[in-house]
Design goal:
Elements lengths: L7 E6 L3 E6 L4 E5 L4 H5 L2 H5 L2 E3 L4 E4 L4 E4 H4 L5
Antiparallel strand pairs: 1-2, 2-3, 4-5, 5-6
Amino acid sequence: MPKVEPIAVEMTIDETTLRLRLADGRELSVPVEFFPRLAMATAAQRANWRWIGGGVGIHWPDIDEDISVPRLLGLPC
C-alpha cells in the first residue's frame, strides 16, 4: 500500500497558536512556543508563509522556518 502524506489545506497562526485543517478533516492546534523562531517573529513575519509540497509543510521565508505536517503529527519524516 503506498504511503499517503497528510496534507494541510488551511492554516492560521497568531502569537500563541498554529492551527491546521488537514485534507482528511483532522484539525490540529500547536503552541507557537514549540517553535522558537515563530515565537520570536513579528505578526508580519508569521503572516508571510507558503505551503511546501502542496500542503506537506509550511515555510516562513522571513525567519527561515520550515515545519512539516508529519512532524506535527508525530510521524517519521
